[in-house]
Amino acid sequence: MSNLLPEEAQEKLISTCRAAAGDSLRSLTYFNRFDYLQVYLRDDLEQEADLNSFIGNEWHDFKMTQDAYRGSELGDYQYTIRVFENGYLVRITLEDFGVFVTTDGITMQDFEALRTAVTTILEEWAIAE
């Protein structure tokens, strides 16, 4: 078990993401500036993926995106969807922490439901800290 995210919080994230993405949920990773924890990984996927490079890239890209689009007419940044040959990566981040979720094909409505549900949880945790 990790000190980064209590077991109860891990279970809440998993159930929230499973409700939004169903069986399309591939993986779920919680991260902050200093560490990360893979909370969920579907059994049929490679168990030894190098998450360090994913986390570094997603954190760096989040900060660059925040800076680049701050004050634009597009409004506030909400989340990122990356499309790959075998699935999607959704990054949902607050200022100091976030998650990335990988899925098989789901609809834009499912992505939005996932973002809304996860953001609500992350905002609750930010207030509690």
Give your account of this protein's structure.
The chain is an alpha+beta fold and 129 residues long. It has a single domain (7-127), classed as Beta-Lactamase, CATH 3.30.450.30. It is 43% helix and 26% strand. The chain has 3 helices and 5 strands. Strand 4 and strand 5 form a beta hairpin. Helix 1 runs antiparallel to helix 3. The longest helix has 21 residues, at 108-128.
List the helices and strands in order.
HEEHEEEH
The oligomeric status of these chains comes to single chain
**Using only CA atoms, what is the Rg?**
14 Å
State mean pLDDT (0 to 100 scale): 84
Largest sheet: 5 strands, antiparallel
- Number of helical runs? 3
CATH topology: Beta-Lactamase
Uncertain segments are: none
Would you identify the CATH H-level superfamily?
A: Dynein light chain 2a, cytoplasmic
Strand content: 25-35%
Q: What's the arrangement of strands in the largest beta sheet?
A: 2-1-5-4-3
Question: What class, by secondary structure content?
Answer: alpha+beta
Overall geometry comes to: globular
User: How many domains is the backbone divided into?
Assistant: 1
CATH architecture: 2-Layer Sandwich
Pfam families: DUF7522
InterPro entries: DUF7522
